Structure formats: structure tokens, C-alpha cells
């Protein structure tokens, strides 16, 4: 039997440690005959130096030695920083179970009783080789796993960096978060559950005394939903009225509002015919007359807007309707709300009313109405920020499961000459 056969190819270097030169020579002769590369040490101290310089695959050490005993040497051997595991066999005349347990606890893998039988020695070496092979295969697999995880971490870091930039770009779609129109104030809120989300809010001018407002919630979460919001932002553009489907150009070059229901129907046809996507979205589109306080709205599957009167009472308006992008040829309805001085209208996403509390119960419309009543004296952006704080307190967590968005219209009364 060669060293390759006995050691299974994983045991090549063997260190024999014994204070008896005769015992070392007997073991070394057998090991060399089987083709192993053998080193000898007459003490535990010398053996440790050799192990630091050139770690062996297999150590065979006598238990009883002057100075550093085999047991103490074994403990120090295990404390060495080594790339691969070294198999350790203690040579002893001890057969007491407590002594064997002591050796195993010190880090020994196996025992041989002196005098050593050659056949038994070969068998123990073969057993050690099987264990070392499995250990080294496991080490290699762990190395491959670590290498793969390192590559994945690099990719994740790169993706995370891209998503941070994507979040900045998406937030820039809502370039103006607050505006005072004199007769009314508009505040916008957009908070994604992740880096990017599927909610979008905005406002756009219609004329000297009218504005458009909208709240959108694209199905799903993440990058694809965010890309959809970017596309929709162009269709309701405040800076490029030619692209805004809620507006139409007259013969004299002016832009006037389309009825909100008609504009949503156009969006639905566009999504169904031109955009290859599985996403759909909910929407509330509003046409606000700043002189009269008259608001024309169309609701497409979006949560019912909350109308809070000046006396603090809250009602939820609208009839629901179908989401956009689900049914070709879908029709949409519109309704009117008359606002007076001190009234306010909140167009919010389902992330608000479907926020889950610590008991699992959802906030729902009743909970939102309670918050609005509590915040009756809070105005503008401060109200929206306080709403986020209230939701965090309700959920017991500042990280929400869904995107949170809202458009707040606060009517103060006509600021235009009669």
C-alpha cells in the first residue's frame, strides 16, 4: 500500500512526535514504506515549531512526554491558524474511558494503543483520510459559496447605489411639494416603502384660476412600478402641456381642461393599446376652480378622497370606479365637490388606509378620519408630516409595507377680483 492509497491522496505529510527515538523510528519506517513524507520531533515544543513552519496533514503524538505533553501539544496545535485541518492521533497506553474523553476534548481525532499494530495504523490513517477529504471538500464548497456571496454583494452594492439614484430621480418627479395659489394651498407627500415605489402625486396649471391635481398608485412595487410612474408623469405633465392628456389645445392656442373622466378614459385606451405591461394603476384626477371652490373629480379605483369641512367633520367622497389598464373600453364617471373657506380635501393612496397596526388591524377610513380630526388645527406640509408620524405610531414602525402618498388641497376662499 502506498501513501496515496493509505492517505487517500489527502494525507501526504506526517509528523511523528515521541520522546523515544526508537518509537519514532519504528513508526517512521512504516510510514515511509507506505510512501508518506515524514518529519520527526522529540518534544511537543519542537513539534509546534515544525507545525508553524509547515503544517502536517497528519500528526501522530505520544501522550506521555516530558515538558509539553501530547495532550497539551494537541490543544496548542488546534489553536494554530491553519488553512486546512490536520488530523491528530494520540499514541497512548491509556484505555480508561475518562482518559479517552479527555483526549477528545483536547482536540484529538483518534487514538492508537502502544505498541502500534501496522495493520491498525493503516486503517486509522485511511479513516482519517476520509474525514480530511470530506472536510476539504466542505472547505472548497464554502470557499465557492463565499466567493459567490462576495460577487453577489458587489452586485447588490452596485444595484443599491443605482436604486439610491433612482429614488432621487423619482422624487424629482414631484419637483414642487407646496404652492400657495392665494385662494387655496396645495401640499404633496410621497414616501416609498422601498428605494423606489409605484405612487405618484402632482399638480398642474389649467388656467389663471384653475389647477389640476392627481394621485396615482401603480400595482406592485419596485423598479417596474417606478418606471410606470415616470411614464405617467409625462402624460400629466405640468411643464409640457402638449403632453398632458388632461388638457386640450384650443384653436387660439390656449390649453383648457378635458373633463377628468374623459382624460382617464384616454389614459386607459393608451395603456391598453400602446404599453405592453401587466401593471395597472388607480387614479384620482381633479379639476379645481380656485374662484368658486368647485372641484370636479374622477375616481378610478383609488381610495375615496377625504373631505374635511371647516367644522372638522370628515366625509369620504366618490363612487370608486375601475382601475386604469384593466379593461379595454372601460368608462369612468366624475362627480363634484363644493368647498368653502376652511375646507380641505385629501387625495391619498391605499398605503394610508391599509396601514396595519400592531394588532394587525388596518387603519381604514375611520382611522384616517380620526387622525384628521386630531390634526384639525395643523395645516399644509405640517399636516402631511404629522400624518406620517401618526401612521408610524399606529404601525409601531417607521418602515411601511406600502408606499404612502397624498395631495392636500386647502381652500381659503376667493382671492381673485370679482
TrEMBL record:
<feature type="modified residue" description="4-aspartylphosphate">
    <location>
        <position position="62"/>
    </location>
</feature>
<feature type="domain" description="Response regulatory">
    <location>
        <begin position="13"/>
        <end position="129"/>
    </location>
</feature>
<dbReference type="GO" id="GO:0000160">
    <property type="term" value="P:phosphorelay signal transduction system"/>
</dbReference>
<dbReference type="Pfam" id="PF00072">
    <property type="entry name" value="Response_reg"/>
</dbReference>
<dbReference type="InterPro" id="IPR001932">
    <property type="entry name" value="PPM-type_phosphatase-like_dom"/>
</dbReference>
<dbReference type="InterPro" id="IPR011006">
    <property type="entry name" value="CheY-like_superfamily"/>
</dbReference>
<dbReference type="Pfam" id="PF07228">
    <property type="entry name" value="SpoIIE"/>
</dbReference>
<dbReference type="GO" id="GO:0016791">
    <property type="term" value="F:phosphatase activity"/>
</dbReference>
<dbReference type="InterPro" id="IPR052016">
    <property type="entry name" value="Bact_Sigma-Reg"/>
</dbReference>
<keyword id="KW-0378">Hydrolase</keyword>
<dbReference type="InterPro" id="IPR001789">
    <property type="entry name" value="Sig_transdc_resp-reg_receiver"/>
</dbReference>
<protein>
    <submittedName>
        <fullName>Transcriptional regulatory protein AfsQ1</fullName>
    </submittedName>
</protein>
<keyword id="KW-0597">Phosphoprotein</keyword>
<dbReference type="InterPro" id="IPR036457">
    <property type="entry name" value="PPM-type-like_dom_sf"/>
</dbReference>
